[in-house]
Design brief:
Strand 3, helix 5 and strand 4 form a beta-alpha-beta unit. Helix content is about 45%, strand content about 5%. The protein has a four-stranded parallel beta sheet, with helices on both faces. Helix 7 packs across helix 9. The chain contains ten helices and four strands; from the N terminus they run ααβαβαβαβααααα. It is an alpha/beta fold.
Length: about 290
């Protein structure tokens, strides 16, 4: 009798797990992909990173690991399909550092546009970008505006988490105050210590300086592309030597909490798609737009 109960329990557990629908796109079978599109309310999340130096102590793929960590944790709470590793990003500012994979501006534009087009062709109507790389900010702003250049059958949303000073203070109290916490510093190192502890070499963080050199401080009212190199030529901004996983979990949890809420809002959103269609319709006949 005990054997029969055990067999029934194992079979039942297997049946339940077999019925669970993966949210990682690469894990879906073709028939399950159709179910996933519907279950996600036709919503796909693209975590974006890059291959670049992260100080002397974090891996080249840090931004990939973290953006994907946010997306996967959020999808466990609010179902959405998560796109595989995406690292075709803007990183010209780190071309002087070993391991940087810097694609041409034309290629990163075409790769992202064609990825969106292909996702839409496969049924997704809402696409969320979770960007883990600061060097993409200006690119993604422009790319987002350029989506209005021609009619689209999908809506693109970019996740922009808000700072939570209370959580940031708790994390800093567990580690240290880092005045230059810009890249591979206290916060990012703590998050990697939580998400990928085997790849966060905190003991190496002091091997190079992550201080802001302020080599352009006398140039007021100026923007130039060399600004990052002028401040952080080591491609390291901050001090990750006191980072720890407990602080990292606080920071990750706050980001995931906001991302879950955003996914819920996007899935229910009817405003952006309707406004886009109205805009595209009017853009075809601008002289008919009421003045």
């Amino acid at each position: 009798m005990k054997k029969l109960i055990l067999i029934a329990f194992v079979f039942s557990s297997f049946f339940v797990s077999a019925q669970e629908l993966p949210f990682r796109l690469e894990e879906l079978t073709a028939p399950d992909f159709i179910k996933a599109v519907e279950k996600s309310s036709r919503t796909c999340v693209i975590p974006i990173g890059v291959m670049e130096k992260h100080g002397p102590h974090l891996p080249l793929g840090t931004d990939l690991f973290l953006s994907r960590e946010y997306a996967l944790r959020a999808a466990e709470k609010e179902y959405a399909v998560v796109f595989p590793w995406y690292y075709f990003s803007q990183i010209n500012e780190a071309r002087h550092q070993p391991g940087t994979i810097s694609y041409s501006p034309e290629l990163i534009w075409l790769m992202l546009q064609e990825t969106l087009d292909e996702l839409n062709r496969n049924g997704f109507e809402k696409i969320i970008i979770v960007n883990g790389h600061g060097g993409n900010n200006a690119f993604l702003n422009f790319f987002g505006m350029a989506q209005l250049s021609e009619p689209r059958n999908y809506s693109l949303y970019w996740f922009r988490p808000e700072p939570n000073r209370e959580v940031e203070k708790k994390a800093a109290d567990l580690t240290q105050h880092d005045p230059f916490d810009a890249h591979a510093g206290n916060g990012e190192t703590s998050e990697m210590a939580a998400a990928q502890p085997q790849l966060a070499y905190v003991d190496r963080a002091g091997q190079q300086s992550g201080a802001n050199l302020e080599r352009m401080k006398n140039l007021q009212y100026v923007y130039t592309g060399i600004w990052w190199y002028a401040s952080y030529p080591n491609h390291y901004g901050g001090d990750g030597s006191k980072a720890n996983a407990e602080a990292g979990e606080l920071l990750i949890d706050e980001t995931v909490k906001q991302l879950v809420e955003m996914i819920q809002l996007v899935k229910a959103d009817t405003v952006v798609p309707a406004l886009q269609q109205e805009f595209f319709r009017k853009a075809e006949h601008p002289l008919d737009t009421k003045q």
